[in-house]
Design goal:
Number of strands of chain B: 0
Oligomer: heterodimer
Radius of gyration of chain A: 50 Å
Structural class of chain B: mainly alpha
Largest sheet of chain A: 2 strands, antiparallel
Largest interface: A-B, 22 and 27 residues
Distance between the termini of chain B: 59 Å
Shape of chain B: flat
Order of helices and strands of chain B: HHHHHHH
Strand order of the largest sheet of chain A: 1-2
Helix content of chain B: over 70%
Strand content of chain B: under 5%
Number of helices of chain B: 7
Number of strands of chain A: 2
C-alpha cells in the first residue's frame, strides 16, 4: 500500500469502517511507515479533541452560551424580526407620536428667554407704578385722596352739562 | 286657551330680553362694586372677599367679561394702596376663575405678576408673567 492510499483510508480506518482485508493492509503499512503512523496518531488525537468538545457542548451551560452566538442579533431597523406581524402598527404609532411630540419640545425650546421675560416684567411694573401715581395723586408723599372708576356703570348716558357754559 | 299662552311665550322671547337681563346684571355688579370700594375705603377688609365673590359668580357673558377684569383691577389697586397685597391676590384669583377668554386671563396674570413683584416674590412674579405671555400667544395677541 502506498502512503497516499493509506492516508486516504485513515479516517475510515479509525472509524472502523474498513473491511477486514483493507484494515490489515493499513495496519501493515502503518507498522512499516512512521510518517503515516504519525498522521494516524495526529488524526486520532484530533478526533479525541472533537469528541471532548462535543461532550462539553452538550452540557446545558455551554449550550446556553453558544446558542445566542449562533443566532443573528436582531437589528433595531429590522422591525419585522422585532415585532413580527405587528411591525406596521408599531411603526405607524412611533411616527405619529414623533409628529405630535417633537413640535411641542421645539416650541418649549423656542420660548421667551428668562432674561427677556424679566426685562418685560420690569417694564410692566414701571408702567403700572406710573399709572398708580396718576390714579392716586400723590403730592409731597401724602396721598391726596383717591377716586375710583366703576367699570359696570352705564357710561353711555347723555353728555354731561357743563355748568360753566352759560347756556 | 293655548293661544294666549303661546302669544305670551312669544313675547317673552322677543329680541331685547337678553339685553334687559344684561342691564339687570350690570346694575347689580355696579352696586356691588360700590359696596366693595366703600368697604376698602372704610378698611373693612375682612368683608371684601365675600362681596367680590358676588360679582364674579354672576356668570357674565363672554363679551362683557372685560368689565370683570377692569373691576378686579380697580379693587386690587385700592387694596394695594391700603397695603392689602394678599387680599388683592385673592380677588384676582376670583376674577381668574370667572373669565374664560385667554386674553383677559393674560391681563389678570400680569396684574398678579405685578403684585408678586411688589410683595418681593420675584419667582412667582416671573412665573405668572410667563403664564401671561403664554396665554397671549394662545389668544393670538402680540
Amino acid at each position: 500500500m502506498e502512503c497516499r492510499t493509506c492516508c486516504e483510508a485513515l479516517t475510515a480506518f479509525l472509524d472502523g469502517e474498513l473491511s477486514g482485508l483493507e484494515r490489515r493492509a493499513v495496519e501493515e503499512h502503518l507498522a512499516a511507515c512512521s510518517a503515516c503512523q504519525e498522521n494516524c496518531e495526529s488524526l486520532r488525537y484530533s478526533e479525541h479533541l472533537v469528541g471532548a468538545a462535543l461532550d462539553e457542548m452538550l452540557a446545558p451551560p455551554s449550550w446556553g452560551r453558544i446558542v445566542p452566538r449562533l443566532e443573528p442579533r436582531p437589528s433595531w431597523l429590522d422591525l419585522r424580526r422585532l415585532f413580527g406581524w405587528a411591525w406596521q402598527p408599531v411603526f405607524l404609532t412611533v411616527v405619529v407620536l414623533a409628529v405630535l411630540l417633537v413640535p411641542g419640545f421645539l416650541e418649549n425650546g423656542g420660548g421667551v428667554e428668562d432674561a427677556e421675560l424679566e426685562m418685560m416684567l420690569s417694564q410692566y411694573v414701571r408702567e403700572r407704578d406710573e399709572m398708580e401715581n396718576l390714579h392716586y395723586g400723590i403730592i409731597n408723599t401724602e396721598p391726596v385722596g383717591w377716586v375710583y372708576y366703576n367699570p359696570y356703570a352705564d357710561h353711555s348716558s347723555s353728555e354731561r352739562r357743563n355748568p360753566y357754559s352759560g347756556e | 286657551m293655548l293661544l294666549p299662552v303661546l302669544i305670551l311665550h312669544f313675547l317673552a322671547v322677543l329680541p331685547g330680553e337678553g339685553q334687559r337681563d344684561w342691564d339687570e346684571v350690570r346694575r347689580i355688579a355696579e352696586s356691588q362694586h360700590e359696596i366693595v370700594m366703600l368697604l376698602i375705603q372704610n378698611e373693612k377688609f375682612e368683608e371684601v372677599l365675600g362681596e367680590t365673590e358676588k360679582i364674579f359668580s354672576m356668570n357674565f357673558p363672554v363679551e362683557y367679561q372685560g368689565l370683570l377684569v377692569e373691576g378686579a383691577e380697580e379693587i386690587s389697586d385700592a387694596l394695594i394702596h391700603n397695603k392689602q397685597h394678599l387680599l388683592a391676590q385673592k380677588v384676582l384669583d376670583q376674577c381668574l376663575e370667572a373669565v374664560t377668554d385667554a386674553d383677559l386671563q393674560s391681563r389678570v396674570c400680569k396684574i398678579k405678576a405685578y403684585l408678586f413683584k411688589k410683595m418681593g416674590d420675584d419667582e412667582e412674579a416671573v412665573n405668572f408673567f410667563r403664564k401671561a405671555i403664554d396665554l397671549e400667544k394662545k389668544s393670538g395677541q402680540p
